[in-house]
Amino acid sequence: MTQSLLHQILDYANRADPYPIYEELRKTPVHHEEDGPYVVGTYYEIRSLLHDPRISSDARNLASTAGDPLAESAQEEETALPPGFLRLDPPEHDRLRRMTNRPFGPPHSPHRVDGMRGELHGIVSGLIDGLGDTGRIDLVEQFSYPFPVTVICRLLGVPRDDEARFHTWADAIAASLDPDPDADPAQGGKASHDARTQLGMYLAGLIEERRKNPGDDILSELATAKGQDGAMTTMELLSTAALLLIAGHETTVNLVTNGMLTLLRNPDVLQRLRSDPRLAVPIVEELLRFEPPVQLVPQRTTLADIEVRGVTIPKGASIWLVLASGNRDPERFEDPDRFDPDRRDIQHLGLGSGIHSCFGAPLARLEAQLALSELARRLENPRLLEDPPTYRQNAVLRGPRHLPIACDGIRP
Amino acid sequence: MNGDGSLERLRREGRIVVVGASLAGLRAAETLRDKGFAGSLTMIGDEPYEPYDRPPLSKQVLLGMAPADSTALPRRRAVDATWRLGVPATGLDMAARRVRLADGDEVPYDRLLIATGVRARPWPREAEAELDGVFVLRTREEGAALARRLADGPKRVFVIGAGFTGSEIASACRERGLSVTVAERGAAPLVGALGGVVGAVAADLQREHGVDLRCGVMVTSLEGDSSGRVRAAHLSDGSTVETDVVVVSLGATRNTEWLAGSGLGAGPRGIACDAGCRAFDIRGIVTDDIYVAGDVARSPHALFGYQFLSLEHWGNAVAQAEIAAHNMISESADRLPHMWVPAFWSSQFGVNIKSVGVPSLGTEIMVPQGTLASRRFIGVYGYQGRVIGAVAFDHARWLPFYQELVETTAPFPPPFPTVDRHPDGQRPMDADFPDPSVPTHGPTVTLSGYSPADRRMTFTPAH
Amino acid sequence: MVRLVVDLNRCQGYAQCAFLAPEVFVMHGEEGLLYNPEAEEAQREKLAQASAACPVQAILVDAMDAPAEAVSGER
């Protein structure tokens, strides 16, 4: 029996190269299997739905969760921490995002991210210095994971020493976002629920501490700030902190790893980057198109019947927007399956669009640019030891679990 | 020019003259070169500056963030043109295909693009307009002069007209800590462009930021002191405002006087052209060698019942220039219609205002997202049962959706709920535009021609 | 000096430019953008970052080095 398209997208066997399946997906404007979500994979339709006020991000608007492999976990989440602003609609979403932005970006903190350039460089240098045996490096464990985690910890004011603890929780929570058809939903839900509860308790203690001894970190500012929008409640603060911490753990790692993997598969581009680090800027944008770390947005619900290219998606339906597929839509991008950092027209969907577009985007961009240009500059003759590498289970937050590489040495 | 090789000759060695060296003129020139025009290109401009951007003049420049002479437009590419700057065009001989210049020179053309734009409408009483301290704001020099005077710290700035420019000037002044009085003939700021419901929000915004806003009044005269400096403004309600700087912000006048007597269909409302940017002559016959783009053009729009729209919009200037340039060097079957959906922005009192479609055509408004009280909202305008425009106050990311509603002539009121859990409501109300027979200050869109028919059509924008 | 212009019809206030090149781009309120239309040469690299990062590709940075092309008067 042939697998349904939905199962193929989720099937781990296709993780290394989901793009042929997305090509199938784009042949119909809206893919729908009985009881399943409505899946959209074409660029213009995705972009337009991301700006459509009839599409809710709040799981409470789902008419029915039957058959939606993600719905279980969505409901489970409610019982631990309330949803972060990613899973809220306006005006609550807008208010929380605005307040979270206050210590992070302009207009109130315009120099926060820009001012981290030196610090980011220092972390990258330290990690590359410590790579050790160049005969076998696991780029994920030794570089792509610790880099953004260190950054998000400093930014939030979370002690790096506690990393082992919340690493486990973040993994369990991220796994719950994975619509794995073969996993036992009850078990996954319980693991995620427990993780959220424990993470919540951990963060609560930390916030208490920051209220007493505020530092120059985001958590301290969120815990003490009283701006135009007032203060966050403790529960809002907890779920916002959890959201940032998990997002900081589970996304940039994939952008960096996918980036190095793609560069090693395109040695001419890697060579160019080595001689001109400024090329990292267009390379990262093209990566966000070509191998986006968030492949799909599976958490949207229709508030009304919506027509998409002649297909009616009924009110209360679950919609999946497959960003990675839209990014390869030949109706939008010329020669979409080619990795081409010289592309002039690159309005990708890699970081989403609309009010829920990636909150940490500027930081992710800087991290990836710096990581890739420094790896290109310092690793001598780097090469892949496995291609394709072993991927993580997750179909939404897609990336290699390990990326074994070797090189001849490390330049100073 | 059909199939006899003459178009090829034009593209290879023809002479194209662009009158108007601002945004539209520059983008047209770049497009011509991009599309392979290899002949001679002459750019004629009355100001002695290469093309510069005007929107910053009422924002960054008045705030002191950037000097007035720093807004030269970046180039998309080299245009390899002959520039005749600081020399206004004074006449057009359509039969001989020549443009006359103020210095007596004549420039021959095979194709002419007119992009002479608009200028600020001056204070109508000449002697008062001459007073020291009375300003208008449109050009670089006007921007520099006003910015200099604001930097001197005047005791009070008096702005006549609360359209977009007037409101932005008032906003910049308040941000600099200057006392400001704004006098508006209509019932509220922005009322001509956005109606009374949104105008009331704009009025609150101004007052909250400390503007002394006077609506429903006219300025009857400006008074100078013995040394010729303005010292007060007298209003129709009998009041007097002492002031040392007056900014006249009464909209714009189209630069078409130089075409008087040429036989081209040019007048105070602009130059009429067809959807392909070709100018009409006074007999209503379309010319084939004269094109128009930007603020000076009036062109029929398919989405609005083929009414002739004059749009003083930055984006329109760019889009129309590109279409005009393309059409100037294309076979008739390859020409493109100018179908840009009207859109503009304004930044004032810390709020980002954006609009699509033509709100001023609307009779009703509803607020499907956000609230008027929070100054964060979407307002949708309806006309005869269809969505005709929308405005966003700090809600720009939703606007593309409403633009699609305008483009697809979607029904009004929109029959669906939105993600916003507490919007002002799904119920339409009177948009409260002023009686069109009562002139207001400087609407952004002016309409003429027949009313839009309530017909459905499908507009497919180029992606 | 580097000239630039932002198509504010396209701009949706994602603020990527203001994060990455805060000396040139400033958020004015939550969503409005002000920028220095003539940036210092030293900002060129950050400008490239900002314009590449713009989700709606609204930032145009001068494609030419020399405004020398604009010569007044002469034919």
As for the CATH topology of the largest domain in chain B, it is FAD/NAD(P)-binding domain
Evaluate the radius of gyration of chain A.
Answer: 21 Å
Fraction of residues in β-strands of chain B: 25-35%
CATH superfamily name of chain A?
Answer: Cytochrome P450
Number of continuous helical runs of chain A: 17
The interface involving the most residues is between: B-C, 46 and 36 residues
Question: What are the secondary-structure elements of chain A, in order, as H or E?
Answer: HHEEHEHHHEHHHHHHHHHEEEEHHEEEE
- Tell me the major beta sheet of chain B: 6 strands, mixed
Question: What is the total tally of β strands of chain B?
Answer: 30
Approximate helicity band of chain A: 40-55%
Number of helices of chain B: 9
Residue ranges of chain B: pLDDT <50 for 5 or more in a row? Answer: 439-444, 447-463
Widest sheet of chain A: strand order? 1-2-8-5-3
- The CATH architecture of the largest domain in chain B can be named as 3-Layer(bba) Sandwich
What does this structure look like?
The complex is a heterotrimer of chains A (412), B (463) and C (75). By secondary structure, chain A is of the alpha+beta class. Chain A has one domain (5-410): Cytochrome p450, CATH 1.10.630. Helices cover 47% and strands 8% of the residues of chain A. In chain A, the strands form 4 sheets. Chain A has a 5-stranded mixed beta sheet with strand order 1-2-8-5-3, with helices on one face. A 3-stranded antiparallel beta sheet of chain A has the order 4-11-10. In chain A, strands 6-7 form a two-stranded antiparallel ribbon. Chain A is globular and about 60 Å long. Chain A starts with a helix and ends with a strand. The relative contact order of chain A is 0.18. Mean pLDDT of chain A is 91; it is low at 71-79. Chain B has 463 residues and is α/β, with parallel strands linked by helices. Chain B has 3 domains: 6-119 and 253-330, FAD/NAD(P)-binding domain (3-Layer(bba) Sandwich); 120-251, FAD/NAD(P)-binding domain (3-Layer(bba) Sandwich); 343-448, FAD/NAD-linked reductase, C-terminal dimerisation domain (Enolase-like, domain 1, 2-Layer Sandwich), CATH 3.30.390.30. Chain B has helices at residues 6-13, 23-34, 60-63, 126-129, 140-151, 164-175, 191-208, 314-328, 399-407, and strands at 15-19, 40-45, 82-85, 89-93, 98-101, 106-108, 111-114, 118-120, 134-135, 157-160, 180-184, 212-215, 219-224, 230-235, 240-242, 245-248, 252-254, 266-267, 270-272, 278-280, 286-292, 297-301, 307-311, 343-348, 351-357, 364-371, 376-383, 386-393, 425-430, 445-448. Chain B has a 6-stranded mixed beta sheet, covered by helices on one side. In chain B, helix 3 links the parallel strand 2 and strand 3. Residues 439-444 and 447-463 of chain B have low confidence and may be disordered. In chain C, strands 4-1-5 form a 3-stranded antiparallel beta sheet, with helices on one face. A two-stranded antiparallel ribbon of chain C has the order 2-3. Chain C is of the alpha+beta class and 75 residues long. Chain C starts with a strand and ends in a 14-residue tail after the last strand. In chain C, a hairpin with a 3-residue loop joins strand 2 and strand 3 (32-35). Chain C has a single domain (2-63), classed as Alpha-Beta Plaits. Chain B binds chain C through residues 42, 48, 50-51, 53, 55-56, 59-60, 63, 65-66, 70-87, 314-315, 318, 343-345, 347, 350-352, 354, 394-397, 399, and chain C through 1-5, 7-9, 11-13, 26, 28-38, 60-64, 67, 69-75.
